[in-house]
Design goal:
CATH topology: SH3 type barrels
Number of helices: 4
Helix content: 25-40%
Structural class: alpha+beta
Distance between the termini: 38 Å
Radius of gyration: 15 Å
Shape: globular
Number of domains: 1
Order of helices and strands: EEHEEHHH
Largest sheet: 4 strands, antiparallel
Strand order of the largest sheet: 1-2-4-3
């Protein structure tokens, strides 16, 4: 069974933190909607930050930042992606969105404490 979407699609992500000491970056993914099959209860659905497209030039449609899981990518791999395709940079979250995202990530029980600590999201 494949976990890749069919047809394959490009996923937008947000780099929320960089830990240069360990050559790593923390990422969250943007989804077009909150999938009720993946997030079956209200507690899990609340771990998403709604992003209205009309207020964000980097979005084509209303979307949701999934703050339920923090992904890691080696910093050198991330940088090579931006060097190879500078057009993948679409913009940045506002200070208000960053603050809301930070609150959600900090409170998320679905993210291991060691990951939160690694990227500065521990209470």
């Amino acid at each position: 069974m494949s976990l890749s979407p069919t047809p394959p699609k490009v996923k937008r992500f947000v780099v929320i933190a960089i830990n240069a000491a360990i050559n790593s970056s923390g990422l969250l993914f943007i989804n077009s909607h909150v999938n009720p099959n993946v997030f079956p209860n209200a507690k899990l659905r609340k771990l998403h930050l709604a992003l209205a497209a009309d207020q964000r030039t980097y979005l084509d449609s209303d979307s949701h930042l999934d703050c339920s899981r923090l992904y890691e990518l080696a910093l050198d791999r991330l940088m090579s992606k931006f060097v190879a395709k500078p057009g993948i940079y679409l913009g940045q979250l506002s200070k208000a969105d960053m603050a809301k995202m930070s609150q959600i990530v900090t409170a998320a029980k679905t993210i291991e404490k060691k990951l939160k600590r690694r990227y500065g999201f521990m209470d």
